[in-house]
Specification:
The complex is a heterodimer. Chain A is 51% helix and 10% strand. Chain A is of the alpha/beta class. In chain A, the strands form two sheets. A six-stranded parallel sheet of chain A has the order 1-10-7-4-2-3, with helices on both faces. In chain A, strands 8-5-6-9 form a four-stranded mixed sheet. In chain A, a hairpin with a 4-residue loop joins strand 5 and strand 6. Chain A is elongated and about 105 Å long. Chain A starts with 8 loop residues before the first helix and ends with a helix. The relative contact order of chain A is 0.11. Chain B is an alpha/beta fold. Helices cover 31% and strands 21% of the residues of chain B. Chain B is built from nine helices and twelve strands. Chain B has helices spanning 3-14, 29-32, 38-45, 49-64, 76-88, 106-111, 113-116, 134-140, 190-198; strands spanning 68-73, 98-102, 122-126, 143-146, 150-152, 157-162, 176-182, 186-187, 205-210, 214-215, 223-224, 231-237. A six-stranded parallel sheet of chain B has the order 1-12-7-4-2-3, sandwiched between helices. Chain B has a four-stranded mixed sheet with strand order 8-5-6-9. Chain B has a two-stranded antiparallel sheet with strand order 10-11. The radius of gyration of chain B is 22 Å and the shape is globular. Classes of the chains: A alpha/beta, B alpha/beta. Chains A and B meet through helix 2, helix 3, helix 4, strand 1 and helix 8 of A and helix 1, helix 2, helix 8, helix 9 and strand 9 of B.
Amino acid sequence: MKRTKEPTYSQDAQKALENHVLQSSLKKLQNRFGKGVMEYWAAKDDDELRDRVKRRRMSTIENLDVVLSLLADNVQKAGGHVYFAKTGSDAVKYCLRVAQKNEVKTVVKGKSMLSAEIGVDKALEQQGVEVVETDLGEFIIQLAGDAPSHIIAPCIHLNRQQIGKLFQEKLGIDYTDDPPELTRAARGALRRKMIDADMGITGCNFACAETGKISLVSNEGNIRMATTMPRIHLALMGIERIAATMQEHQGMLQLLTRGAALQKLSTYVSFVGGPKSEGDPDGPEEFHLVLVDNGRSKILGDPEFREVLACLRCGACLNICPVYGRIGGHAYHSPYPGPIGAVVSPLLFGMNQHADLCKGESLCGACLDICPVKIDLPRMLLALRHKLAYGDAKWQARQHKPSEAFAFKLYRLIISNSMFYRLALRCARLLQKPFMGKSGMIGKMMGPGARWTNDRDLPPLAREPFNRRWKKKHSRNQKRNNEVNHG
Amino acid sequence: MDEKGVFLADIRTALGYTKEETRDMEQCPAVFADVDDSLILDRIQYRTHVEKQALLQILQDNGEQLRLEVHPVSSLDAAAETIVAIIKSTKPEFSTARQIIQHDHPDLIELGLWKRMAGEAVHVHTAYSNDSEVREKSVESFIGITVPRWAVAESATVVQITGPGRPRSTSLLPSVHIALIRLEHVLADLTEVYALLGDEPPKESFVFITGSSKTADIEAHMVHGAHGPRQTHLVVIDELMVQKTTPLKGSGIFASAEI
């Protein structure tokens, strides 16, 4: 994730707040899925499934070396290739090698966040390979030259009119803003691509070690197409996307589809792994599984953050987060937006590069409540803030804002000394006067204070401090009490 | 150490073991321990006909919201009639020719669809494993007919074990997917599927299909037929079913005519 002169978190958040299309879609999405999932959890008699899946997930992750080794053996036994990619660029190089060796001209993709994390699309395109996203939302994003803004609903920031214009321009169809017609246009445009493509690249929802199968979940059928029609299938898999057994897999699958979109099951859950057998007209001649570490073993090694690897990537936390619900996905500058992104992105791509994310979240705890596997994101957001406040050698985190640290030191000095404190208050009361508007509120401050008043007015410091008022009132009461007692 | 060795050594270190300390399944039996599912298998085996019919009813109800139309029939012959009615009422989407592809399964062969469709200018292909043109035929077909291994009442899912003779694309490329199943293969829930799968030898590939292909990517507006079939039918043969006098009427087949 290289970042050049991109707009900042606050700038993108501001932009999102002004985008009415985004605001109304986010609201709709959160009302439907966020609330819906919370109601579903609440209506369940017992929470046993969520706790059980979490427990099994953690114990699998704590034995990841064994589980991954078994998966690799089983995939190889079935005739598939397994590549162990320590970094994202290792994984990209491997994809390029496979594409080159097989003279691949067209790649069709199933939605995969990992592919965005490692930047494989661009690398393939630079080699002259045509890369086509096949998930409808991702396809729209690709046509628009845009970036996805939600884990399962990538184009919620666009409305049907915008998509209609886009299709008119890029697909050469007559303008329509009818979702079924637009979908049909994409269906027609993508069908031939998927049938004729040389290679399919997908992610992996969950692999299962004991069967050597990876499973892929979709509603559209595009992922089934991408794993069925091309002669090569390459699956990118983060090392933590794994179940040891099918039984563990079942629990994960059920929580994934519930958490993501309140479904009992998505339309398609495909289990594949290995090349097709003789006489089978479908399925790839070559199957490659690329296991990507890219910073995950570092997360695994830190007990404070290990829990985040249990994530099912359902996106439920996005559907309830009050911050994501206002600022949308783009401000996160990561393939992983929302509360989960606010924890995972700094851990994967650098705490200082993504320092704003953990500070932007409200710590309200809704993400913990909705998470199918009850990952304590608020706890980890606080841990990240702590590391940024004091610096952390293990995570190569620099102290995020030394000036802020200095200000807090100064503040400590002032509030722990009553003389300094009173003096400071007196100065502040004098200094605030020129900034007070007609309403009696402080509407505009200068310098570093400006950001406090950009979006709201602040109440001024009281003319008389509380302790003085208290004394006055108290002494009056005392006087009255005395009078009553003596009268 | 090879590439895999180095990779796994890093993970071991992260977990607090030494790099050299290679571990295998024996060190973590709990992770691979399967809960005993013999009770589930027994439940499936000893299910009565009445219970199975109840499951079929649940399957039918759940399928409705997912564009999975369930057609209970009493015999292979009645199944053939139902399927013929669906074929007759469906227009091809991607080509002008009316072609059909079906899995190589004795029940489907027994239907004799090619005979029944002889006067209709409909070509019926079977996905024989020695036919090198199955792929092209599947691309051209507007209806795909399969025999799933199981159907699941609770989620309205069909489970297909795919491989030679029963390719994956039959339930994927055509606009309409018709699945034919016998009542004894209707299961209650996903737990039963997982239990049965665990009881069998490993498969090349398999898929759970729940309803028709769909998307809600444009303004959360639900549209059926994103990339896979727009309409899915499940014909269930219950040979002990009391024959209805008018099996086709009101079964909803003709509702799909405009797709």
